[in-house]
Amino acid sequence: MVLMSNAPDSIFVILGCGHAGAQAAATLRAEGFSGRVILIGAEPWHPYERPPLSKAVLAGAAAPEKIEFRKREFYADKAIELRLGVRVARIDRSGRKAIFENGSEQPYDKLLIATGSRLRRLPVPGADLPGVFYLQTLDDSLGIAKGLKPGARIAIVGGGYIGLEVAASAAKAGAKATVLEALDRTLARVASEPMSRFFEAQHRAHGVDVRTGAKVTGIEGSGRVEAVTLASGERIPADLVVIGIGSQAEDALARDAGLACDNGIVVDCCGRTSDPDIFAAGDVTFHHDPKSDTHRRLECVQNAIGQAQAAARAMMGNDRPHAEIPTFWSDQY
Q1: Antiparallel, parallel or unpaired: β 278-280 and 110-113
Q2: Which pLDDT belongs to residue 166?
Q3: Whole-number percent of the chain with pLDDT over 70
Q4: pLDDT score, position 288
Q5: How far is CA 312 from CA 17, 176, 294, 327, in A?
Q6: Are the C-beta atoms of residues 304 and 22 closer than 8 Å to each other?
Q7: CB within 8 A of 222, min separation 6: which ones?
């Protein structure tokens, strides 16, 4: 088999600068790929880690440059072309090119989609008021951090890991945090009941008002958020609201291009999609897990990195399937 790494004129394009995209670019160079590597991201920031957004960045313990994956000279040293602050509008599979929103085009020989996930929006009146935040990007985290002040009233909609991590950061900053979870326990979708109760007790011990069975019906404010209203009729005063109610695969580009999608982009153990020239890795994928012989979508740093490594090698013609038991962590208090 002739590996693509021996084709210096080849162009490998990666869409997405998160854990999967950045890792794939680094892996291509580490594995000896000698063609062009183009890493494209919608945000203006150099590729950075996501987990600190709800922890160290909120706490003011990590400046933006401190959470970047690698020093900026790495990309120049490895001849990885960074294109930041640009968005791809569609993928032309027949012409093998990515078309940007401004109409410009980028041809590719192999394409990797690592666009991650998009946040679920809270469908209630007032959810677009100033002072209402979602947490996905560095800009989101920096915006929330400005409001985490002693005495500030922070309402957090959603008691998953992100919501609880934000609550911990708020409490450590001296803010008055209230967690509003619609189900009967926090972490209900991802953890056992004993673990849920452990975390709830920890938060209450730190002064967080944890409320389960709390269904949000609206967000009120005159020009800016002032309160969250519940189905019970109760009104929770708030100076800032953070919404964390889950996410969905950011697979619109793949769907529009006609790739097989089902709760994400369907890929095999090497990240290969239904198009032999297109691969995918990370949160956007609905991938085959050989250990359980099922398909699933994971929002997990370890999985994103492992899939990216496998996909990068497969793009070069070196199939080494990704098969790992995923691990998860949360940093609270």
Answers
A1: parallel
A2: 97
A3: 98
A4: 81
A5: 14, 45, 23, 22
A6: no
A7: none
Residue 201's CB: how many other CB atoms inside 10 A?
11
Mean pLDDT throughout 297-312? 94
Residue 142 has pLDDT above 50, yes or no: yes
φ/ψ (deg, to 5) at 203: -65, -45
The alpha carbon of residue 81 and the mean position of all alpha carbons in its chain are separated, in whole angstroms, by: 22
pTM of the model: 0.93
Pairing of strands 97-100, 88-92: antiparallel
* DSSP codes joined into one string, 123-160: -STTTTSTTEEE-SSHHHHHHHHTT--TT-EEEEE--S
Asked if 82 and 75 touch (Cβ cutoff 8 Å), the reply is yes
Place of tokens 């947490």: 135
Would you state the structure tokens that stand for residue 33, as one six-digit string?
Answer: 């790929």
CB atoms within 10 A of CB 185: 18
Non-local (6+) Cβ contacts of 221 within 8 A are 126, 129, 130, 131, 227
- Rounded Cα distance between 95 and 181, Å, is 47
Q: Please state the three-class secondary structure of 155-220 as a single string.
A: EEECCCHHHHHHHHHHHHCCCEEEEEECCCCCCCCCCCHHHHHHHHHHHHHCCCEEEECCCEEEEE
Q: Please tell me the predicted confidence (pLDDT) of residue 8.
A: 78
pLDDT tens profile 118-127: 999 999 999 9
- From CA 190, how far away is CA 79, in angstroms rounded? 40
Query: For position 296, what pLDDT does the model report?
Result: 87
* Three-state helix/strand/coil letters over 35-58: CEEEEEECCCCCCECCHHHHCCCC
pLDDT at 323: 81
Q: Is 296 exposed, middle or buried (0-12, 13-18, 19+ CB in 10 A)?
A: middle
Strand-strand pairing, 227-230 and 216-220 = antiparallel
